[in-house]
Specification:
This protein is α/β, with parallel strands linked by helices. It has helices at residues 29-41, 58-68, 81-86, 108-128, 148-161, 183-187, 208-217, 240-251, 262-275, 283-297, 323-333; strands spanning 20-24, 44-49, 72-75, 96-99, 133-137, 166-172, 192-195, 227-231, 257-260, 302-304, 309-311. It binds NADP nicotinamide-adenine-dinucleotide phosphate. The site of NADP nicotinamide-adenine-dinucleotide phosphate (NAP) has 25 residues, from helix 1.
Length: 345
């Protein structure tokens, strides 16, 4: 079964002046789309990527280059400041650093190493190199930080805000890929899994291409400078139950849900958390249970501190790609979605 490629809606056109951009995290889902968006704007993009199966052979490098577009791929360790420094970025005169770097697991140690420390080091190198602008891909869920990866992201956001560099902190809602994990089980005739009644949470899903275009435009739009920018996709917010209904409609099948009681998830979280007192090795698994509980109970919408509730209207909409069109494309093309370690979030 083919893996899904980028959403192929109409190409976007840009009129902003060309920039020289250093991009971190270019091999990730949003990083790849951002590399393409920057290249499409005519920007001069250097992607700093680590040695891996995606680049280590000529064939793999060729495939990555085809995915990223007209960009310069350089090998190095974004998580190692020595590597960033030895890439001799100082001589190159970058206008901006754009980071789509993120912990692939969300495990506490990795989150602090990547979402915080690697970013803190990249910020220091950017300052030394005289790079004046930093665009950061963050997440809307950091507004209610309960998980370690959220705390790590928030700690770096604070560092960036206080750095003196021009910054744009982009906090998107849910990605299409994160709402596509059940397509394969539905294809096999299985029911759609819901937490509770499937109406506990909602989000305004945004496509990779729309989010990438939003990130790329932060380089030139002065009203996005020195701001924290929550962003969702076009249209109304959608609950998990509505996602399921949409998928069954497109598959031409009657709706069939199976509910996982939220109390069960809560019990798993408290049991695992309790066990870590006697078995510290379980700490990571307990955090994954907390991550699952968080996404089962918290909406990916902006939090309105006045009403004390998530607010659809306070969550800006951007872009034009709809979840319906994405689902339709995945179903009709027979594609599968690779969630890798991000299956939960
Ligand atoms: N999923 C959602 O619905 C959602 C919604 C809002 C926000 N977010 C946030 O978006 C982020 C995920 O974005 P994504 O899905 O585009 O990420 P992704 O596909 O997992 O990509 C992560 C990028 O970071 C790089 N990276 C990770 N660990 C590294 C390391 N140790 N050294 C060097 N590079 C490393 C990866 O490089 P390699 O390819 O070499 O591993 C890759 O380029 C997360 O922070 C999440 O909180 C997600």
């Amino acid at each position: 079964m083919p893996q899904i490629g980028p959403m192929t809606s109409q190409p976007r056109t840009y009129q902003s002046p060309k920039k020289r951009v250093l991009l971190l995290g270019a091999t990730g889902t949003i990083g790849r789309a951002t590399a393409r968006a920057l290249a499409a704007r005519g920007d001069d993009v250097v992607c700093f990527v680590r040695s891996s199966s995606a680049v280590d052979t000529d064939g793999a490098r060729h495939r990555l280059q085809a995915k990223l577009g007209d960009v310069d791929i350089r090998l190095g360790e974004a998580a190692d400041p020595k590597s960033l420094r030895s890439a001799d970025l100082r001589g190159e005169g970058f206008d901006a650093l754009v980071s789509c770097l993120a912990s692939r697991t969300g495990a506490p140690k990795d989150a602090w190493a990547i979402d915080y420390q690697a970013h803190a080091d990249a910020l220091a190198v950017a300052k030394e190199a005289g790079i004046p602008q930093f665009v950061l891909l963050s997440a809307i869920c950091v507004q209610k930080p309960r998980l370690e990866f959220q705390k790590a992201k928030l700690a770096f956001e604070k560092l960036l805000i206080e750095s003196g560099l021009a910054y744009s902190i982009v906090r998107p809602t849910a990605y299409f890929k994160s709402l596509s994990g059940q397509i394969d089980r539905l294809r096999k005739g299985k029911p759609f899994l819901l937490f509770g009644n499937g109406e506990l949470t909602s989000c305004k899903p945004i496509s990779d291409a729309d989010l990438a275009s939003f990130l790329a435009d932060c380089l030139s739009k002065s009203d996005r400078r020195n701001k924290i920018l929550p962003v969702g996709g076009p249209g109304d917010a959608i609950t998990p139950r509505e996602q399921g209904e949409l998928l069954f409609e497109l598959l031409g099948r009657p709706v069939q849900f199976r509910s996982i009681p939220i109390g069960l998830v809560r019990t798993v979280v408290s049991t695992m958390s309790g066990l870590t007192w006697v078995m510290p090795a379980l700490a990571e698994k307990a955090e994954f249970a907390r991550i699952a509980h968080y996404y089962a109970t918290e909406s990916m919408l902006a939090w309105d501190p006045i009403s004390g509730a998530y607010s659809e209207s306070a969550t800006p909409s951007y872009g034009r790609d709809t979840l319906r069109a994405h689902y339709q494309y995945v179903i009709e093309s027979g594609s599968s979605i690779s969630l890798r370690e991000h299956a939960m979030f």
